[in-house]
Design brief:
Rossmann fold; alpha/beta; 23 strands; six-stranded parallel beta sheet
């Protein structure tokens, strides 16, 4: 638990030592932290808070977005936070309202997203009696929040809100829960506002500056390396370290690969970009991580979808690991140089030391390495199949990227997510996807949150037909508030990634993955909610349909019926190293999961029966 001490208070010109209810203090404190939008759904235990929110909305100080399901509120607050870097806020009542938020809280926790979640609770006297709509949401969420509070007295409310925003947004970001018993909402107290930035928590002091000796050690390894690789994760996005990564990569001529969470931290059009690595990463990124002699991990946590077989991940490399969270450094892979600190601050320290010592660019040292990577790029590009009539999912994503190159993109989870990660080229904070938890139903409400936060930006949700049905009720929210989100459904009539795994690893036993039976008419469904719906199935319609979708002044759902049995490649099979990828040289409608090994040394394709590469003799 976090040790706390009373923060410094400041007096407001308008409110000074006035008797106010706990609900008033909550809403006023939230406003003081710059919150303009709250996503939520009311209920009995949280009514005192909503009554105060009604007054705040009437003055135009804040807007409440009424979702159709509390999970949508949590995902919307999450999308709001990812798009802006600010703390997202959502409300839910006690009991089922609070438990409906759990998936969204877990999603934010896994991806380190700053959120403040406010739940109503039964009155203090009823806690522990199994009262109507009572759940111990504090206990339920302990493993999936950064910190939790139950407000026992109205006089503590201002302090708790200030601490919650501070904890959520500093160090490694994450969700913070504030559980408010109903009678605390109506209890009065002497209210002294607490301004943002004045909170001091003696037991909570994240390390932001890297150790100078470790900085020097990192520079020594950089000077020696001939095959360096930057491996960038979501911590770089959270720290806004995009400029520092670019400078470091260009100065030392280091190729850059990112995790799913790290997409957008480095310009994917840059010659040094390798795109995403891991299970569905590019072949050249996976070859590079298998062959590098120095891996500079920046805000990444060596998760299983990236590393594949962990003991063979970057097995030839020394590792520099930079992360704000000391628990992540060395958790899965012991680094030669561990550096705990804010990613941007640490990279600035490294670059400052380079400038101080006037170290030259090391481009000559990595020339041969970059040439080798370029050959991999030429030999093993991402494949975009084109069929005579049907639309391939890859083709859809490429056309969408062409027509909306600067949009904010959210996704759901599955094959469409991986295709989007491969073919959409995103800028900083413009890629919003559930990575750690892999939450279906995330995409549309997250897009809703991003669009509310950034009304002048283009926001597009890329979803699958199965994922879309998880939270389709939020079409009602889009319609009510006129939230101009475009939802593009990659519709293959399957739980696509489940089907692909069943084909590859379960001898084509497609157990409960076919979604065609019971599939709604999505075009009519959208229209029933008052949202424009479009359905296409012929590739001749693709360009015009996307253009019509983007041009429409209002929310649109574009249902694109794609090639039904398309698989997402490359793919690293479970338990295999990143140099071993399942794939096909040419994807066709007759896909069968044929395993193809590519030698990590020379890049030549080899049959699976060979244990050594016939070209160069490297063990496969």
């Amino acid at each position: 638990m976090v040790s706390t001490s009373p923060p410094k208070t400041t007096l407001s010109e308008n409110i000074s030592f006035q008797r106010r209810t706990g609900a008033f203090v909550l809403i006023d404190s939230i406003k003081r932290h710059g919150v303009k939008h709250i996503f939520g759904y009311p209920g009995g235990a949280i009514l005192p808070i909503y009554d105060e929110l009604y007054r705040a909305e009437a003055t135009g100080d804040i807007q409440h977005i009424l979702v159709r399901h509390e999970q949508g509120a949590a995902h919307a607050a999450d999308g709001y936070a990812r798009a802006t870097g600010k703390v997202g806020v959502c409300f839910g009542t006690s009991g089922p309202g609070a438990t409906n938020l759990v998936t969204g809280i877990a999603t934010a926790h896994m991806d380190s997203i700053p959120m403040v979640v406010v739940t109503g609770q039964v009155p203090r006297s009823a806690i522990g009696t199994d009262a109507f709509q009572e759940t111990d949401i504090y206990g339920i969420t302990l493993p999936i929040v950064k910190h939790s509070y139950v407000v026992r007295h109205a006089k503590d409310m201002a302090r708790i809100v200030a601490e919650a925003f501070h904890i959520a947004s500093t160090g490694r970001p994450g969700p913070v829960l504030i559980d408010v018993p109903k009678d605390v909402g109506v209890e009065e107290c002497d209210y002294v506002p607490i301004e943002p930035g004045s909170v001091k928590l003696p037991g909570y002091r994240p390390t932001v500056k890297g150790n100078p000796r470790q900085i020097n050690a990192a520079l020594d390894l950089l000077e020696e390396s001939e095959r360096p690789l930057l491996y960038v994760g979501g911590g770089a996005i959270a720290a806004d370290a995009h400029a520092q990564i670019l400078e470091l990569a260009e100065r030392f001529q280091i190729p850059v690969t990112t995790t799913l969470m790290g997409l957008g931290s480095f310009d994917e059009h840059h010659s040094l970009s390798l795109g995403m690595l891991g299970m569905h990463g590019t072949a050249y990124a996976n070859f590079a991580v298998s062959e590098c002699d120095l891996l500079l991990a920046v805000g990444a946590r060596f998760d299983d979808r990236v590393t594949g077989k962990l003991d063979e991940f970057a097995s030839r490399a020394k590792v520099i690991h930079i992360d704000i969270d000391p628990a992540e450094v060395g958790k899965n892979r012991a680094p030669e140089v561990p550096i705990v600190g804010d990613v941007r601050r640490v990279l600035e320290q490294i670059l400052q030391r380079v400038r101080e010592f006037d170290l030259p660019s090391f481009s000559g040292r990595t020339t041969e390495w970059l040439q080798r990577i370029d050959r991999w790029k030429q030999d093993y590009p991402l494949v975009v199949p084109q069929y005579r009539e049907s639309i391939s999912p890859q083709e859809l994503l490429v056309e969408l990227a062409r027509q909306a190159p600067h949009a904010y993109y959210t996704t759901d989870v599955g094959q469409h997510q991986m295709w989007a990660a491969q073919f959409l080229k995103n800028g900083p904070r413009r890629w919003i996807s559930s990575a750690g938890l892999g939450t279906m139903g995330y995409g549309m409400p997250a897009a809703m949150g991003a669009k509310v936060a950034l009304p002048d930006e283009q926001v597009i949700c890329v979803s699958g037909d199965a994922s879309f049905q998880m939270n389709l009720q939020e079409l009602g929210t889009l319609a009510q508030f006129g939230i101009n989100v475009k939802t593009v459904i990659v519709n293959n009539g399957w739980q696509g990634m489940v089907r692909q795994w069943q084909q590859a690893f379960y001898e084509e036993r497609y157990s409960s993955s076919n979604m065609q039976a019971g599939m709604p008419d999505i075009e009519l469904l959208a229209k029933a909610f008052g949202v424009k719906g479009i359905l296409i199935s012929d590739r001749a319609q693709l360009s015009d349909a996307i253009g019509e979708t983007l041009a429409h002044d209002g929310p649109v759902v574009l249902d694109v019926r794609v090639t039904r049995d398309e698989n997402c490649y490359p793919m690293v099979a479970p338990g295999k190293s990143n140099a071993q990828m399942i794939g096909l040289p040419e994807v066709s409608t007759q896909d069968k999961a044929i395993e193809i090994l590519y030698c990590s040394n020379c890049g030549k394709q080899n049959p699976t029966s060979n244990h050594f590469c016939p070209e160069c003799g490297t063990k496969l």
